[in-house]
Amino acid sequence: MAGSTNKLSDKKLKNLLNSDREKEENFADGDGLSVRVSRSGVVSWVFSYRIGGRASRLERLKLGNYPDMSLKLARERREQCRAWLAEGKAPKHQLNATVQETLKPVTVSDALKYWIKEYATEHRANVVRHQAQLEKHIYPYIGSLPLSMCETHHWLECFDRTKQDSPVAAGYILQMCKQALKFCRVRRYATSNALDDLTIQSVGKKQEVGDREHDDDEIGDIWRSCTEKKFKPYSAALLRLLVVFGCRSQEARLSRWDEWDLKKWIWTVPKEHSKGGVKILRPVPEALRSFIETLHQQHKDSGLLLGEIKESSNVSQWGRGIYKRLGHKTPWSLHDLRRTFSTTLNNLGIAPHVVEQLLGHTMPGVMAVYNKSQYLPEKLDALNIWMERLDVLAGNHENIILLQVKK
User: Fold this and answer.
1) Which of 268, 273, 257 is nearest to 376 (CA)?
2) pLDDT at residue 316 is higher than 90
3) What is this structure's pTM?
4) Radius of gyration over alpha carbons of the chain, in Å?
5) What percent of the chain has pLDDT over 70?
6) Helix 108-115 × helix 167-186 angle, to 10°
7) Helices 376-394 & 352-359, crossing angle to 10 degrees?
8) CA geometry: angle at 330 spanning 326 and 334, to 5°?
9) How buried is 13 (Cβ within 10 angstroms: 0-12 exposed, 13-18 middle, 19+ buried)?
10) How far apart are CA 79 and CA 49, in angstroms?
11) Does residue 238 carry a pLDDT above 60?
């Protein structure tokens, strides 16, 4: 390398600059890099190369003009071009792509919206919630920054701002953004490692694992409240569905009528509404069918089970206040209903795999690969038993007698 490379110097380049001459001349620096000096003394950096060996055509790529592009920078570009050649890539195409990326860099909002469009829309049931959180906590502050220039401290300012009111939300947003940036990196859309070293504890706190379970009196209170007009129609209907099916609130909140087969009486939750990304089939228990028919009469024109879609945050906030309305001493959330549903059904002798499928959990191990049974008869029996139990706890003995007569 020594003696054949780096032949030029700033002193020589300055002497060549703006010097008139009879014809265009070239001066080599080595390893494909040279300067072309025009008759009027314009000095241009040129990288010469061949793709395919000595027999192929010689390509000349203009890198820039001196002194706008310094000698040091020109040599760095030469080494980059040589690296591209070693990888079998054409320097001309690679350089153009690099320039375009520099002129119009991918911003933070570009990267996050790319993840939303290419991944989250199809694989995340709560994608609307993701978008709302990004629009509130990220886009207004760093959304317009080039992703490559957005450093860790820029992100931390956003997370710290969110942490003041909701440390759990701050941790949730961090996890979402980390996944989004990794997706962009893997897809070669944009690269950033600014979040790699951050953990939930760095920006907020994890969602606490709940252990709240309703006792018999509480679940009886909740079931009675669904029909005693303690809540507005939307809320009462949602609460009844959550209690009966043990479903997640988003599954009922986003449900459309095309998910409901009112002849076979099966509710099919599509995978895009399921947290686990799998389709969930739930039979409709006999005692709930007249209620579903009433909802259909009221809301069929809207196409939505509950007639409208309310924001997840509004529903969660309402759910956190139910315990006060019912006079319960210990707070509980809508998600705690799932724990009560699971525990009670298991205590009633329902097979664990049936309960897990009703909850929308994936089957463990190889069972998830080979066992595709939906256990619909077993699920129906379980839900019928569960509704009978609810009526007992709520003191609705007449309903039980009527159900027994029908059978």
Assistant:
1) 268
2) no
3) 0.56
4) 33
5) 90
6) 80
7) 80
8) 70
9) buried
10) 12
11) yes
Residue type for 327, please? Answer: G
Looking at residue 377, what is its pLDDT?
Answer: 92
Residue 41 is encoded by which pair of tokens?
A: 């003394």
In angstroms, the CA 285 to CA 273 distance is 21
Q: Which residues are within 8 A (CB) of 241 and not within 5 positions of it... i.e. 6 or more apart?
A: 247, 252, 305
Is pLDDT of 285 > 50? yes
**Structure-token match 């502050």, residue found:** 141
Name the residue with tokens 């760093």: 142
User: For the chain, what's the residue count?
Assistant: 407
Following DSSP, what letter does each residue of 206-256 receive, concatenated?
A: PPPPP-----HHHHHHHHHHTTTTSS-HHHHHHHHHHHHH---HHHHHT-B
DSSP secondary structure letters along 308-361? S---HHHHHHHHHTHHHHTT-SS---TTHHHHHHHHHHHHTT--HHHHHHHHTP
| Helices and strands per DSSP (H, E), number in the chain | 21, 7
Q: Which amino acid is present at 346?
A: N
**For 136, phi and psi rounded to 5 degrees?**
-90, -40
Residue 65 confidence class, pLDDT cut points 50, 70, 90: very high
**Cα 18–chain centre separation:** 57
Q: What is the pLDDT of residues 192-217, one digit of tens each?
A: 999 999 999 988 877 655 678 899 99
- Please report how the helices 376-394 and 397-406 are oriented relative to each other, as an axis angle in degrees rounded to 10: 150
232/91 Cα distance (integer angstroms): 66
Mean pLDDT of the chain: 87
